[in-house]
Inverse folding.
């Protein structure tokens, strides 16, 4: 385990005491289960990220899930048409809390070059996004950096955040229960 995973603790011979929030944050951070929602070219960059050269598995999240119910990090990669929007939203809604969303590339984040009637101009119009990765396409290093940013959020998130009035208001603004 790298020093990045060292948490604030009180240690002595044969024991260690720390805060539950910190321990849960460390465990969650290092065991994210991504759901890749890849619709076009950014998905190819993700495939490169998974392959041996970039080795996504180094971050504890090589176990991809294609079932929303067994995933906690939704990675949206590619152009999302308005027709696809409801599908993406359903996938998000089927994920259990806590869940995080990474928007990869210009298309997922803003519609990219496709400023047309048929393309969603950013997935944050239908679901909340935690981290945006810029680029068209983003390189695998950028995707990895986005995942590291998600890990920072996960590590520092309070166990009570999902019950907070602010989080409930965020969900209500998207009309999600
Ligand atoms: S951001 Fe660029 S590379 Fe990614 S899906 Fe859109 S057009 Fe393709």
């Amino acid at each position: 385990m790298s020093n990045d995973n060292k948490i604030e603790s009180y240690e002595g011979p044969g024991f260690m005491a720390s805060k539950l929030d910190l321990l849960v944050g460390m465990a969650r951070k290092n065991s994210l289960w991504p759901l890749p929602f890849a619709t076009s070219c950014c998905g190819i960059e993700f495939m490169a990220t998974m392959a041996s050269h970039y080795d996504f598995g180094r971050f504890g999240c090589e176990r991809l899930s294609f079932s929303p119910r067994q995933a906690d990090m939704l990675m949206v990669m590619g152009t999302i048409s308005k027709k696809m929007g409801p599908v993406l939203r359903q996938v998000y809604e089927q994920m259990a809390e806590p869940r995080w969303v990474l928007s990869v590339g210009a298309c997922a984040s803003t519609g990219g070059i496709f400023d047309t009637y048929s393309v969603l101009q950013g997935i944050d119009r239908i679901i909340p996004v935690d981290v945006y990765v810029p680029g068209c396409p983003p390189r695998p290093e950028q995707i990895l950096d986005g995942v590291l940013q998600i890990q920072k959020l996960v590590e520092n998130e309070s166990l009570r955040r999902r019950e907070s009035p602010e989080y409930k208001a965020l969900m209500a603004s998207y009309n999600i229960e």
Notes: The first helix runs from residue 20 to 29. Helices lie at 20-29, 41-50, 85-94, 105-110, 140-156, 165-173. The mean pLDDT is 93. The pocket of iron/sulfur cluster is lined by residues 40-42, 78-79, 105-107, 112, 136-137 (CB under 6 Å).
